[in-house]
Amino acid sequence: MATSKVLLASVFLSLLVLHQVHAVQTNQATGNGIPQNDSSMKIDCGGSCAVRCQLSSRPNLCKRACGTCCARCNCVPPGTSGNYDACPCYASLTTKDNRRKCP
Length: 103
Fold this sequence. Notes:
By secondary structure, the protein is an all-alpha fold. Helices cover 55% and strands 0% of the residues. It is built from four helices and no strands. The chain has helices spanning 2-30, 45-52, 59-73, 88-92.
Protein backbone atom coordinates (compact mmCIF):
# COMPACT_ATOMS: atom_id res chain seq x y z
CA MET A 1 0.00 0.00 0.00
CA ALA A 2 2.78 2.44 0.90
CA THR A 3 4.64 1.52 -2.29
CA SER A 4 1.65 2.44 -4.47
CA LYS A 5 1.34 5.83 -2.74
CA VAL A 6 5.03 6.55 -3.35
CA LEU A 7 4.69 5.48 -6.99
CA LEU A 8 1.60 7.65 -7.47
CA ALA A 9 3.32 10.66 -5.87
CA SER A 10 6.41 10.25 -8.05
CA VAL A 11 4.29 10.01 -11.23
CA PHE A 12 2.41 13.15 -10.22
CA LEU A 13 5.63 15.06 -9.55
CA SER A 14 7.11 13.90 -12.85
CA LEU A 15 4.06 15.16 -14.75
CA LEU A 16 4.24 18.48 -12.91
CA VAL A 17 7.92 18.92 -13.81
CA LEU A 18 7.24 18.04 -17.47
CA HIS A 19 4.42 20.57 -17.59
CA GLN A 20 6.68 23.31 -16.19
CA VAL A 21 9.45 22.51 -18.67
CA HIS A 22 6.99 22.64 -21.56
CA ALA A 23 5.64 26.00 -20.36
CA VAL A 24 9.14 27.49 -20.15
CA GLN A 25 10.02 26.24 -23.65
CA THR A 26 6.78 27.65 -25.06
CA ASN A 27 7.45 31.05 -23.50
CA GLN A 28 10.95 31.13 -24.92
CA ALA A 29 9.77 30.09 -28.38
CA THR A 30 7.01 32.71 -28.55
CA GLY A 31 9.06 35.48 -27.06
CA ASN A 32 6.83 35.83 -24.01
CA GLY A 33 9.72 35.59 -21.58
CA ILE A 34 11.11 38.84 -20.24
CA PRO A 35 9.68 41.80 -22.14
CA GLN A 36 12.12 44.33 -23.51
CA ASN A 37 11.09 47.90 -22.73
CA ASP A 38 14.21 49.50 -24.20
CA SER A 39 12.99 51.71 -27.05
CA SER A 40 16.39 51.50 -28.76
CA MET A 41 15.74 47.78 -29.34
CA LYS A 42 12.47 48.41 -31.25
CA ILE A 43 12.48 47.81 -34.99
CA ASP A 44 10.92 50.11 -37.60
CA CYS A 45 7.58 48.37 -38.04
CA GLY A 46 6.41 50.75 -40.78
CA GLY A 47 9.44 50.14 -42.96
CA SER A 48 9.59 46.42 -42.30
CA CYS A 49 5.89 45.98 -43.04
CA ALA A 50 6.13 48.09 -46.21
CA VAL A 51 8.78 45.69 -47.51
CA ARG A 52 6.79 42.65 -46.37
CA CYS A 53 3.57 43.87 -48.02
CA GLN A 54 4.97 45.38 -51.23
CA LEU A 55 3.64 42.53 -53.43
CA SER A 56 0.33 42.09 -51.61
CA SER A 57 -2.91 42.39 -53.56
CA ARG A 58 -4.32 44.37 -50.60
CA PRO A 59 -1.33 46.38 -49.33
CA ASN A 60 -3.23 48.58 -46.84
CA LEU A 61 -4.82 45.58 -45.12
CA CYS A 62 -1.50 43.74 -45.16
CA LYS A 63 0.37 46.69 -43.62
CA ARG A 64 -2.26 47.11 -40.89
CA ALA A 65 -2.14 43.42 -39.90
CA CYS A 66 1.65 43.34 -40.17
CA GLY A 67 1.93 46.49 -38.03
CA THR A 68 -0.19 44.93 -35.27
CA CYS A 69 1.91 41.77 -35.29
CA CYS A 70 5.16 43.72 -35.39
CA ALA A 71 4.13 45.86 -32.41
CA ARG A 72 3.40 42.73 -30.36
CA CYS A 73 6.44 40.70 -31.41
CA ASN A 74 8.98 43.40 -32.30
CA CYS A 75 9.99 41.46 -35.40
CA VAL A 76 8.88 40.88 -38.98
CA PRO A 77 10.11 37.90 -41.03
CA PRO A 78 12.30 38.81 -44.01
CA GLY A 79 10.94 38.72 -47.55
CA THR A 80 7.45 39.24 -48.88
CA SER A 81 5.98 35.95 -47.61
CA GLY A 82 6.86 32.87 -45.59
CA ASN A 83 10.07 32.75 -43.53
CA TYR A 84 8.01 32.42 -40.33
CA ASP A 85 10.81 30.48 -38.67
CA ALA A 86 12.77 33.74 -38.38
CA CYS A 87 10.11 35.16 -36.05
CA PRO A 88 8.20 32.47 -34.10
CA CYS A 89 6.07 35.00 -32.19
CA TYR A 90 4.90 36.56 -35.47
CA ALA A 91 3.99 33.13 -36.81
CA SER A 92 2.11 32.07 -33.67
CA LEU A 93 -0.49 34.86 -33.66
CA THR A 94 -3.89 33.64 -34.90
CA THR A 95 -7.40 34.97 -35.48
CA LYS A 96 -10.55 33.72 -33.76
CA ASP A 97 -10.87 31.12 -36.54
CA ASN A 98 -7.33 29.80 -35.86
CA ARG A 99 -5.98 31.26 -39.11
CA ARG A 100 -2.70 33.15 -39.24
CA LYS A 101 -3.18 36.76 -38.25
CA CYS A 102 0.11 38.01 -39.65
CA PRO A 103 0.83 38.22 -43.37
